[in-house]
Design a protein that fits this description.
Elements (H helix, E strand, L loop, with lengths): L5 E7 L13 H7 L2 H7 L3 E7 L18 H18 L4 E6 L5 H14 L4 E6 L20 H6 L19 E4 L6 H8 L4 E3 L1 H7 L2 H13 L3 E7 L21 H14 L2 E7 L10 H13 L14
Parallel strand pairs: 1-2, 1-3, 3-8, 4-5, 4-7, 5-6, 7-8
Length: 310
């Protein structure tokens, strides 16, 4: 029996972290695909807190001419950090994105709350990319490729609010990555971040590496923030993302990850990011992401209804 929890839905209609329009429609797509209903059917209390909105923008600039939409991204970071920090005492915030730059704010909010209750924060990054650029190393200028660097305390984020409590590298797990730029690769070698790329998962399977990380979280009595990017999944089953990378997790592997996370009882906050409904096929990806969130919240494989994409 699933222990009832309070799920707090927070919409993050953010498009500023990349250049392909459409992610701002993500929160609405999750709502239309029935996320609240799926969670309520499992016995959870669901409160939709609506979408965060941009505050008055500053005039931040970057020495890197490639960086774009910096004031907007800083504004979203501030707003979302406040929203997640305010939500955590009341339940489990589920941030509906929106591109992955939203994690600049969502994890900052989680870190602020974790520090306030004197618990360590751990981060599980389910993504094709490491997102370990800084605003100075990115060549695309897309800030959705920078949140993990901000979280881990790398430099060059002077335009952003100081991260509340940088997450120790040993508390971060990259899971399923398969697209890393050379500069990110070099920087990762200087940090003790746990890296389970697709080679590791192909060799050892999903279960052993994930359980090992979850045991670390449990032993430390930590809080666990999970950031789930659509491109963690193989594009053959989840086409609605602007950063498709072949060789992602299968339907069964992704659900197994979610069920293991549920069984651990450790997840305290969740991002659902990079859904671009303009690229979807009859809401196929949105429905799959809703199903995965339901698995994380307790739906078992034998409980799953037959799904039609029609």
């Amino acid at each position: 029996m699933t222990e009832p929890r309070t799920c707090l839905l927070i919409g993050a209609p953010i498009d500023s972290g990349q250049r392909r329009p459409g992610c701002l429609m993500g929160p609405a797509a999750y709502r239309v695909a029935g996320l609240a209903q799926a969670l309520a059917s499992l016995g959870h209390r669901v409160e939709d807190r609506g979408d965060v909105t941009l505050p008055t923008l500053g005039d931040q600039t970057s020495p890197n001419p490639a960086v774009h939409s910096l004031p907007e991204t800083v504004g979203w970071t501030e707003a979302l950090s406040a929203a997640v920090a305010a939500a955590l005492p009341d339940g489990l915030p589920i941030v509906l994105g929106g591109d992955h730059s939203l994690a600049l704010g969502s994890v900052a909010g989680a870190a602020a709350h974790a520090a306030s209750v004197d618990r360590p924060l751990f981060v599980l990054w389910l993504d094709a990319h490491s997102d370990f650029h800084t605003p100075m190393t990115t060549t695309s200028g897309n800030l959705h490729g920078t949140p993990l660097a901000y979280i881990a305390g790398r430099g060059d984020f002077d335009a952003f609010p100081p991260f509340p409590a940088p997450v120790p590298a040993a508390n971060i797990c990259l899971f399923g990555i398969r697209s890393v730029d050379p500069e990110e690769h070099a920087a990762l070698l200087d940090h003790e971040i746990e890296i389970n790329d697709m080679r590791v998962l192909d060799e050892y399977g999903i279960v052993a590496p994930l359980r090992e990380f979850l045991e670390k979280v449990k032993a430390a009595e930590g809080m666990l923030h999970v950031s789930l990017d659509v491109d963690f999944l193989d594009p053959s089953i989840a086409p609605a993302v602007g950063t498709t990378v072949p060789g992602g997790t299968t339907f069964r592997e992704a659900h197994l990850v979610m069920e293991l996370l549920h069984e651990s009882g450790l997840v305290t906050s969740l991002d659902l990011v990079e859904l671009n409904p303009a690229l979807d096929e009859r809401s196929r990806t949105a429905k799959l992401m809703v199903d995965l969130a339901a698995s994380l919240m307790g739906r078992k494989v034998f409980d799953r209804p037959t799904r039609s994409f029609g």
